[in-house]
Each structure stands twice: as C-alpha cells, then as structure tokens.
Amino acid sequence: MTRALLIAALLAAGCAASAGEPWARLPATADLIGVIDRPQDLAAAVRDHPAAKSAVALPAVRAALAAANVRRVEQLVAYYEREMGDDGPTILGRVAGRGIAFATLTTEDRDPVVAVAEGTDAAASKLFFGLAVRAFEDEITRQDPNAKIRRGTHAGVETVHFGDDFHAAQTGTAIVFSNREAELHAALTRTTTAIPAALTRARALLPAKPLALFAFDLTARKSTQASKDYFANTRLEVIPTAILGGTIDAVRRADLAAGGVYRSGDRVEAVVRLNARRADLPAEFAFHVPSAGQPGSLPLLEPPGVVFSQSMTLDVATYWTQRTKFVNALQLPELEKAERDASKLFAGPSVGQVLEMSGPYHRVVALATSEVAYRSKPGQVYPPFAVVSSMRDPRFGKSAATLARGAAFAASVATGLTMADDEVTDGVTIVSYRFPDAKPLAADPDGVRYNFAPCFAVVNDSLVVASEPSVIRALLPELKAPKTPDPKAPAWQARAYARGAAAHAAANPEPLVSNLILTRNLGLDAARAETKQLTDWLATLGAAAVTVDHAADFFEAKFAWTHPTPPSTPQGGK
Asked: What DSSP element (H or E) covers 154?
C-alpha cells in the first residue's frame, strides 16, 4: 500500500511538473503566443539598468513618480509586500517564477485572450490572487458603488468575473486570466506536455535565451481576403513598393514571425525575424538588396557631432528600369509623364537617364554642429544634414548637379533663393545657395528656411547634397578616405547618438525651456537649470541602432541600444 501511494505521488508530481509550464494552458488554436520565461530577470534588467537608475535624479522624472497614479501603484506594491511578508522581486518569483505566457486568436472579431502566470509556490499564488481580487473589488466599488464582482466555480476551481471581459482564477501554482469566460474554463482543465508548435519554431528561429519572446503564426491572418488584397495592392503602389517593398514581400512569403528581447551587460536588443529565405525573394525586388558578393550597405558616416546616421541599399536605377513590374497600369502613365515634364525643364540627360546612372548605396547623416548662415534665426532649429549617394556612372554627378541647379532656379522665383560663390575645400568644389536674409516670406512665417543653405558637391564616387556647406566639410575626411565596407553589413542600418542629440539640444535649449515653463510652471532660471540637467543626462545614454536585413534563412529587423558604463574614478586620482 505504501509503495502504491509512493508511485501515485511520483506520477502526480510528474504531471504537475509537466503542467507547470505557463504555455501548458494556452489554446492549441492560438496564432499569437508570448512568453516571458524569467519575469524576475526581465524586471531586474529594467530596474537595474544604469539609465533607469540615473533617470530618477531628474526633476521631471521625480515629478512624474510623485503623481497620484504612481503613488497608488507604490501603495499597492507595499500592500502586497506587507501582506505576503516579502519584497517585490521575491513575490514576483514566487507567483510567476516559472514564467508568464499569453495567447490569442487574431482572426476573430473580438480576439480571445488567455494569460497565465505560473509560480513556484502554490500558497503564495493563492494568497496573491486573493489579495489582488480584494484590491480590484475595492477599486471598482470606489469608482461605482453598484459595481459587483461575480464569483463561481468550474471543475472545482473558484472563478472571479467582472463584466464581459474580466474572468480569472487561481489553481495550484497558476493564475489564469481571460477576456472570455469559456476560454477561462477551458484553460483551467487544459493540461498538455506538447509545446505549441509556433513557440518551438520561434525558439529555433531566434537567438538563444531571450528575456521575453513572441511567436506569431501568420497562416490564418494571411488567408483572409483583406490580407490577400493588401499584398496584391501594395505591390503595385509606387511609394510603398519603393520604400518597403522588400519588407512587405518578406511578410507575404513568411508563415511565422518571431521576436525576442535580450540584454547582455550594457546592451539591450529586440529582434524580430520572419522565416522568409533570401533565395526566395523575387528577382524584381533586387533594388532592396545588394548584388551577390556586395556589402548590404556602406559603413555609417560618423563625423564629429553626429546625431543620426543611416546607410542603405536602394537601387533606384533598377526600380526605374523595371517600373512596369511595380507600378499599376493607372499610375504608370502618370509617373512617366511626370518624368518627361520634369526633364523638359533641364538641359542635358532626362530625369530617367540620371536615375539610371545613380548607384545603389545611399547614406544620410545629421550633425549637432551648425554654422550661422543668416542673421535671422529660424523659429525651430533643425540639425543640419546631408544625403550621400553612390554613382554607377561618373556622369551621374554632373547630370545630378544640372538637375539641382535647375531646381534651385525654379525655387528662386518663389523664395528668392540665390547662388553663392563656389567654395573649394580640400580640392572639392561646394556649390551652395542662400535665401534672402531678413526678408519676409508669406509661405514661411516662422523662418524655417533659415535652417538651410542648400548645397552639393561630388566627392570621389559620391554625390553629396546637404542642408549647409559645413556638413559637407565635416564629411570630407570620411568620403575621401572611406572605411572598408563590411561584406556582412545589413541592407539597411541606422544609428542615433545620444551625445550628438544632447549637444544639439544644449545649443538650442529654447523649446525645452519653454515646455518646462508651460508644463511645470517653472521660472526661467529653474527651467534653464533643469534643461541643462536633462541634456547632461541625455549625453550619457550611448547610441541606439536599427538594422534590417535579408539574411540567408530569415528576414530580420533588430533594435540595439548600447548604454556605455561610465569609467570608474581611479583610486587616489583627482
């Protein structure tokens, strides 16, 4: 008898372990699944991040933390800690230490949602759930004295219901929620050892050990008529195809989207992948990817004071020569007529011929530093920027310059734009234009035009068009002695630099100062002091990068933020 009881207990323990994964209660028909394997690690990654810790010192953050809603949350956390006899992180581990998972079916009108928190301590889960229900009931009663929570049972488990969209229960180490009562009941009796297929495939597609991940089976969503119409229509639209054609086509070909969040030291990453192979990308979309053996994009331009830098492949020549495959029959004649009409305004090659001479690589860069080109100051100061495009044919630079001169002449009629004397720097001729200074212009009452002294130059195999000559001068060292391209570079990459953004904000503090005066009711001196504190903090935040690439086995979009750890002060140093 004792032996039989022992075997039964071991079997029960085994079943409990199998059903102890949060995904074990999710519906098999779900197409969107999210999982946080280690909620306490994710919470710690946010709580202990240097940026979060340093932000608490900012007056604006302290003011936000003092708001009534935040204080109410703090009181609620303190309530749980007092009643459960533990601190917040420990409670989180006890009630959700084995993970949090949710699932939904996105093709239904009112998407059914099931969420499960699987803990390590059944008693703690029961106590936490009871406290949560009590706090929820007190809050809804405070808002509406007539509001009531309905209680029931299902399969021997007590359930709690409020309205049509709140249904919850606690059983064993699990706390279960759904927006539909039937789905809650199904989750309470559902136990499985089979990991959802989409979740298994997502883990195989993503890098290992994410702090949180999602898996989206696209099959059902893409089978709807609305999705089919979207893919068919956007493929024939000029702007969506030119900008996002490769990405849209990757979604069309994929049947799984997966994403994960990661942290390693001072680096935080969010990765989204589609199981769309590069080999299956239609040939006509080659304008979004480089030719075989070529780098996906050129190295980012990073001159002193850089705020933002972007590099990408966008082969406009290929797009133009194969436009009949992308542009629908109604828009194509209009597009070609516009090209012919524009070409009549300029001497030399047509606009289409100039496009065919252009190269596949384009880079954009914005700087914090700016020269003062006018006595008048614009109402809003923008960082100066440049667009750098590669040339397939050396004639592209000369032909594009002809187009630029024609466009400047056309603009001069309405704005008074005039050509300035050519500037030669390090052997490079910079052609620039100026607007009349201190002359009213009805179309620009705020003087936005005073941000710009349009200019262009040809540097080696690149055409540079900039908002002011100082940007071209800053780029000359990198353009005349370019970095070696990385053969594994993504097709699209961009990076934002906190130090450059802080420098721009510090040089132009008026918008921040005015906002603080209006929203925080601060005096001028206090607003200026707080603005300086904010820009000083911003300068410590490192850099954030975004990449998009058509890899061999998947399409990937990645966000990465690197927050540099400040160097420690040497012992005994000054």
From this structure: strand 150-154
Exposure on the CB side of residue 450, measured as CA atoms within 13 A: 20
Dihedral of CA 40/160/107/22: which sign? positive
* 418 vs 409: CA distance, rounded Å: 8
Token reading at 396 = 């592209």
Q: Comparing C-alpha atoms, which of 14, 27, 18 is closest to residue 197?
A: 27
Cα dihedral: 89, 95, 98, 104 (round 10): -110
How many other C-beta atoms lie within 10 A of the C-beta of residue 74? 11
pTM of the entire structure? 0.85
- The three-state DSSP-derived secondary structure of 471-525 is HHHHHHHHHHCCCCCCCCCCCEEEEEEHHHHHHHHHHCCHHHHHHHHHHHCCCHH
**If DSSP states are collapsed to H, E and C, what string results for 163-176?**
CCCEEEEEECCEEE
CA distances 118 to 88, 177, 241, 500, Å, are 16, 12, 44, 44
What are the helix (H) ranges across 144-271?
181-189, 197-205, 219-222, 225-234, 238-253
Q: Is 178 helix (H, G, I), strand (E, B) or coil?
A: strand
Spatial CB neighbours of 440, under 8 Å, sequence gap ≥ 6 = none
Q: Which of these, 14, 27, 19, lies nearest to 199 by C-alpha position?
A: 27
List the chain pLDDT tens, one digit each, 574 residues: 334 333 333 333 333 333 478 988 998 888 899 999 989 888 888 888 888 888 888 888 888 888 888 888 888 889 889 999 999 889 999 999 999 999 998 766 668 899 999 999 999 999 999 999 998 888 888 888 888 889 999 999 999 999 889 999 999 999 999 999 999 999 999 877 778 889 999 999 999 999 999 999 999 888 888 888 888 777 667 777 777 888 888 999 999 999 999 988 888 999 999 999 988 888 777 788 877 778 889 999 999 999 999 999 988 888 788 888 777 777 788 888 888 887 776 666 777 777 778 888 999 999 997 787 888 889 889 999 999 999 887 777 677 777 677 777 777 777 888 888 889 999 999 999 999 988 888 888 899 999 999 999 999 888 999 999 999 999 999 999 988 999 889 999 999 999 999 999 999 999 899 988 998 888 999 999 999 999 999 999 999 999 999 988 999 999 999 987 544 333 333 2
Structural domain spans, the chain: 18-209, 277-562
Are 358 and 432 spatial neighbours (Cβ–Cβ below 8 Å)? no
